[in-house]
């Protein structure tokens, strides 16, 4: 589990730190951390339906912000709990492009143990940075 | 914990951080609280409230209410009044993602003895009828186009469609429909997230609670009676929720709009990206103001439909109509908003955009915007405490002018969710609460643990601080007996 929830940052909300040896790994970890904030047993989410994300942003960290927002969007609009399976990032003419394959299933309260709903990704202390062995991010989710 | 020595004490309950504290502060910051509350407050409040003090147009002080704690952008409990005639800004970070998250209080004519044998039944039925938890959907099935009407008309749409009584509207802030909401300023994503969520509680600290007004907790029987609390041990229903995924998406959308134009177009520099903003009178600022009003209306509609469900459940269980059970609204008030208001500053009337994030408007008697019914006593303020302790009904007072007529909104947390879930066990807590006479149902046991009373400040201390400071007045304290946690 390449992420951890932080006890001393944010009080009414939930902060996590995620990491990966490259950006793709980090994005996958942060996506899972977002879903895991809502569902305790994310391994119980069957990978039945597929959604592709195609996102662009001039700023790499804002691309991560947009990416995490997508999980929240599908949770509300289609009641879909998605887990990131594959992430590809490219940069062209100053724009970062993301293509992601995510899979999951509709929320089923008897199968998926709920924790708390995530309202939004906040930009407070939002960080995406290179670390000694790859990349890491700090995110506060609004609860 | 806060270093109290670095603060300038203005009175027993007001503490000031001077503008020398941080580069760019335009006004001092003032935090309300007793010495105990200030000592318990986390350091992030200092950092966040002084960041707010740097925003263009901020007038007099960046304020934090006595229930203040670590937020994002603004601290929770943050109040900032922006002078819109002199470049004042509007910021989604000063309102929160959950636009018009707020409280509604409803009375019944039942007493504790009468409801006691039915508490479990009522809570279980409410739990079935008012959906809560992650991504829940409501029973009101409407098209996306009809939803656009809901966000423009608010609670009025609900009453027109059979979800409520005409008299309810008078007792909601803005009569349940703020003027100027424009659905054309809303993204499709926001509609997608919200159109099936009317009548749902949400999660986190959102709840629906059955409470009792014990005789010893009715501090002013005369004022209480004017708000419908007329007998000891009277049963009331209080609930806390907001604009759901719709409001969250509106704020997310405009946060990004503001980030793009703030510095390049308007030359505004901020210390935290969550404080992204634009001048109130700019096209972007005005677009967000209209969109945010749709969030306000969605939330008024959401609480109106939930009230309808509550009345149905009580009526079904007690075999009497909701009218016969005296289920009248006391008031409905937001604690996540920005509103254009007229306030006297240094002897002059000014137009101010008052941001309240985790803070409640508390207008004094005689002020415009207070319902006719309460013109002589002031605006009711509904304070949701933790599910284990208690909640309050307060009134606005004339000396509230010092805080732009704003007061606390809840008890305020002291412990993070992540720490609380390690400290408390949901199942054990649920059983302990039941032995203490509070029957609680939740979609999430770990979510329940995060809401344990021990993770919150002492609500009595918070309310006392607000009263001592002269920003609101206590009228009734309520004790929980049944709770539905989102």
Automatic annotation (TrEMBL), chain A:
<comment type="similarity">
    <text>Belongs to the archease family.</text>
</comment>
<keyword id="KW-0106">Calcium</keyword>
<dbReference type="InterPro" id="IPR002804">
    <property type="entry name" value="Archease"/>
</dbReference>
<dbReference type="InterPro" id="IPR036820">
    <property type="entry name" value="Archease_dom_sf"/>
</dbReference>
<protein>
    <submittedName>
        <fullName>Archease</fullName>
    </submittedName>
</protein>
<keyword id="KW-0819">tRNA processing</keyword>
<feature type="domain" description="Archease">
    <location>
        <begin position="3"/>
        <end position="143"/>
    </location>
</feature>
<keyword id="KW-0479">Metal-binding</keyword>
<dbReference type="Pfam" id="PF01951">
    <property type="entry name" value="Archease"/>
</dbReference>
<dbReference type="InterPro" id="IPR023572">
    <property type="entry name" value="Archease_dom"/>
</dbReference>
TrEMBL record, chain B:
<keyword id="KW-0547">Nucleotide-binding</keyword>
<keyword id="KW-0692">RNA repair</keyword>
<dbReference type="Pfam" id="PF01139">
    <property type="entry name" value="RtcB"/>
</dbReference>
<dbReference type="InterPro" id="IPR036025">
    <property type="entry name" value="RtcB-like_sf"/>
</dbReference>
<keyword id="KW-0342">GTP-binding</keyword>
<protein>
    <recommendedName>
        <fullName>tRNA-splicing ligase RtcB</fullName>
        <ecNumber>6.5.1.-</ecNumber>
    </recommendedName>
</protein>
<comment type="subunit">
    <text>Monomer.</text>
</comment>
<keyword id="KW-0464">Manganese</keyword>
<keyword id="KW-0479">Metal-binding</keyword>
<dbReference type="InterPro" id="IPR001233">
    <property type="entry name" value="RtcB"/>
</dbReference>
<keyword id="KW-0436">Ligase</keyword>
<comment type="similarity">
    <text>Belongs to the RtcB family.</text>
</comment>
């Amino acid at each position: 589990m390449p992420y951890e929830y932080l006890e001393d940052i944010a009080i009414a909300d939930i902060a996590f730190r995620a990491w990966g040896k490259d950006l793709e790994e980090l994005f996958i970890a942060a996506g899972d951390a977002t879903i895991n904030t809502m569902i305790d047993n994310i391994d119980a989410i069957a990978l039945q339906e597929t959604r592709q994300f195609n996102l662009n942003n001039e700023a790499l960290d804002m691309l991560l912000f947009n990416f995490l927002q997508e999980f929240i969007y599908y949770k509300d609009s289609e009641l879909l709990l998605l887990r990131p399976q594959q992430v590809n990032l490219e940069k062209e003419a100053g724009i970062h492009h993301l293509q992601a394959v995510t899979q999951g299933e509709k929320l089923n309260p008897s199968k998926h143990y709920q924790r708390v709903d995530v309202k939004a990704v906040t930009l407070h202390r939002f960080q995406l940075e290179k670390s000694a062995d790859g990349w890491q991010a700090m995110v506060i989710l609004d609860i | 914990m806060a270093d109290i020595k670095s603060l300038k004490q203005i009175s027993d309950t007001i503490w000031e951080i001077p503008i020398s504290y941080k580069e760019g502060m335009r006004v001092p910051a003032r935090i309300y609280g007793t010495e105990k509350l200030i000592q318990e407050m986390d350091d992030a409040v200092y950092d966040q409230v002084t960041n707010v003090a740097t925003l263009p147009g901020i007038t007099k002080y960046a304020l934090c209410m006595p229930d203040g704690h670590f937020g994002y952008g603004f601290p929770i409990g943050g109040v900032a009044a922006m002078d819109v005639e002199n470049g004042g800004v509007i910021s989604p970070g000063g309102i929160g993602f959950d636009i018009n998250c707020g409280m509604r209080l409803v009375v019944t004519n039942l007493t504790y003895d009468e409801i006691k044998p039915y508490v479990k039944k009522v809570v279980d039925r409410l739990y079935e009828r008012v959906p809560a938890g992650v991504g829940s959907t409501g029973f009101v099935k409407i098209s996306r186009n009809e939803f656009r009407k809901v966000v423009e008309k608010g609670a009025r749409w609900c009453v027109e469609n059979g979800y409520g009584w005409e008299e309810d509207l008078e007792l909601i802030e803005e009569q349940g429909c703020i003027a100027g909401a424009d659905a054309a300023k809303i993204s499709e994503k926001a509609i997608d997230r919200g159109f099936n969520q009317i009548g749902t509680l949400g999660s986190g600290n959102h709840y629906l609670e059955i409470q009792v007004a014990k005789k010893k907790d009715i501090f002013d029987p005369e004022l209480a009676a004017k708000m419908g609390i007329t007998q000891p041990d009277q049963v009331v229903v209080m609930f806390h929720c907001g604009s759901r995924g719709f409001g969250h998406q509106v704020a997310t959308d405009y946060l990004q709009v503001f980030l793009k134009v703030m510095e390049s177009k308007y030359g505004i520099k901020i210390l935290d990206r969550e404080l992204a903003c634009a001048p109130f009178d700019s096209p972007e600022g005005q677009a967000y103001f209209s969109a945010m009003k749709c969030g306000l209306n969605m939330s008024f509609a959401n609480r109106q439909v939930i009230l309808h469900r509550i009345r149905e459940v009580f009526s079904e269980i007690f075999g009497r109509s909701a009218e016969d059970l005296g289920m009248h609204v006391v008031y409905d008030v937001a604690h996540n908003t920005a509103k254009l208001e007229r306030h006297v500053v240094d002897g002059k009337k000014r137009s101010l955009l008052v941001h309240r994030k985790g803070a409640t408007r508390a207008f004094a008697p005689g002020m415009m915007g207070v319902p006719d019914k309460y013109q002589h006593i002031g605006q009711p303020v509904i304070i949701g405490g933790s599910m284990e302790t208690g909640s309050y009904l307060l009134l606005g007072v004339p000396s509230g002018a010092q805080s732009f007529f704003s007061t606390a909104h809840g008890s305020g947390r002291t412990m993070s969710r992540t720490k609380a879930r390690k400290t408390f066990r949901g199942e054990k807590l649920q059983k302990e609460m039941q032995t203490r006479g509070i029957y609680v149902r939740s979609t999430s046991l770990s979510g329940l643990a995060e809401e344990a009373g021990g993770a919150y400040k002492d609500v009595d201390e918070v309310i006392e601080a607000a009263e001592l400071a002269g920003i609101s007045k206590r009228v009734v304290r309520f004790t929980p007996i049944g709770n539905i946690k989102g």
